[in-house]
Amino acid sequence: MRLLRCALGLAKAAWTAFNRPAAHLGIGFLTIGGFVAGVIWWGGFNTVLEATNKEAFCIGCHEMRDNPYADLQKTIHYSNRSGVRATCPDCHVPHKWTDKIARKMQASKEVWGKLFGTVDTPEKFEAKRKELAGHEWARLKANNSLECRNCHSAESMDITRQGARGAAAHQEFLFTGKATCIDCHKGIAHKLPDMTGVPVWTQTAPAH
Amino acid sequence: MKQILRTTIVRAALLSAALLVTGLTALTLVPESRAGSTTPAAAEAVSSRDVAATGRPAFTGAEGLTVQEAAPIPKDVTDDRRRQRNYPEQPPVIPHSVAGYQLDLNANKCLTCHSREFTGDSQAPMVSVTHFQDRDGQVLGAVSPRRYFCMQCHVPQTDAQPRVQNTFKDMDSVVRQGQGQGQAPGTPAAGGGNN
């Protein structure tokens, strides 16, 4: 009770201080100071946001380092002849600011997952793989494989340099808009989950 | 007050001048030191690669053993052309790249083109119906578990040259030879050496 009253008193004092016109500070100081503080705050916010958009941040948790990152290391998006590498945020975080903030808010669920150890063993991760992959497939399907197209564009694709089968498939499905990248190219940077019931993929091995 | 300000300005000027001098010295020094160090190193690198000339010893350190340069990694055959089989039971070889293909209990990349229901779109050869039989000869609706792991039998090809020439002759050429109308003895059959 005493504590509550104390807290209430503090809150009231804070509100009074906040609400009262400045008695000693000039309007110039307040506007310029406010502007400078705003710049510092905005810069700080975006710096921290960028810091959370680094591969090093993503694999700071052993869940990410030992599972999806270990998958990625075996694929062409990690190591290839031309030495270009896609890092986690290149595919998993939208580049446009508003979309990025929306994705970051969504990703706060991952903090929850970390705290409660949702995928803290390889077995738990494996059990959740299909659900987690499903989220990413749905996201990429909905935005027409935007993160793929940040690097790969249909316009700059020279199909004469592709294998015959790839060229035919791109002409038939990609250029006509019948399909988007993720429809066919699932599992290009991570191991696939159980693909039973996933379109394009079949699980033809019957139950034992 | 003015005095303090003046000394501060003088100090700042001195400091920036000192920084400028240090930076300039560093700039002029760097290329010189680089030029001095690289030339002999580069020459050394070239000569040490020439194994025949230097006779660089193998890791064992034993006398007379020299390092042999590795042959270039052979290229995959990706021309999508079916290869002639050397005998009727030979599993057909894979004439395309299978790099990164996932083939485990979760997913089978091969079947996304070669399974019955997708051959219309993919124009790939359908998995043979023999693969639908279990070991009792019972035909199942889809690929039998014992035939699920495609690359146990079907393998991609590379342009690697065999160390020992293959003298395999297929059945038909042996039969023709027996009838006295075959190829000259000792000639390897065309297509021999696949798989």
From TrEMBL, chain A:
Q: Where does heme 1 bind?
A: 58, 61, 64, 110
Q: Where is this chain primarily localised?
A: membrane
The record's Pfam families line, in alphabetical order, gives: Cytochrom_NNT
GO BP terms in the entry: anaerobic respiration; denitrification pathway
A Gene Ontology term for the protein's cellular component: plasma membrane
Give the UniProt subcellular location, in the record's own words. Cell membrane
- In which family does this protein belong, per the annotation? Belongs to the NapC/NirT/NrfH family.
Reported function: Mediates electron flow from quinones to the NapAB complex.
- Name of the protein: Cytochrome c-type protein
Species, as recorded: Novispirillum itersonii
UniProtKB/TrEMBL annotation, chain B:
> What cellular-component terms does GO give this entry?
periplasmic space
Kindly list the places in or outside the cell where this protein is found, as annotated in its UniProt entry: Periplasm
Gene Ontology process terms (BP) = anaerobic respiration
Q: Which Gene3D superfamilies has this protein been placed in?
A: Flavocytochrome C3, Chain A
Q: What is its main location?
A: periplasm
Which SUPFAM superfamilies does UniProt cross-reference here? Multiheme cytochromes (SSF48695)
**Residue stretches of biased makeup (Gly residues):** 179-195
**Which UniProt keywords are given for this protein, alphabetically ordered?**
Electron transport, Heme, Iron, Metal-binding, Periplasm, Signal, Transport
Enumerate the GO terms in the molecular function aspect: metal ion binding
| Entry-linked Pfam families | NapB
Chain intervals for the UniProt region annotation (Disordered): 71-95, 175-195
Q: How does it assemble?
A: Component of the periplasmic nitrate reductase NapAB complex composed of NapA and NapB.
Q: What does this chain do?
A: Electron transfer subunit of the periplasmic nitrate reductase complex NapAB. Receives electrons from the membrane-anchored tetraheme c-type NapC protein and transfers these to NapA subunit, thus allowing electron flow between membrane and periplasm. Essential for periplasmic nitrate reduction with nitrate as the terminal electron acceptor.
Entry similarity comment: Belongs to the NapB family.
Its recorded name reads Periplasmic nitrate reductase, electron transfer subunit
Q: Which organism is it from?
A: Novispirillum itersonii (Aquaspirillum itersonii)
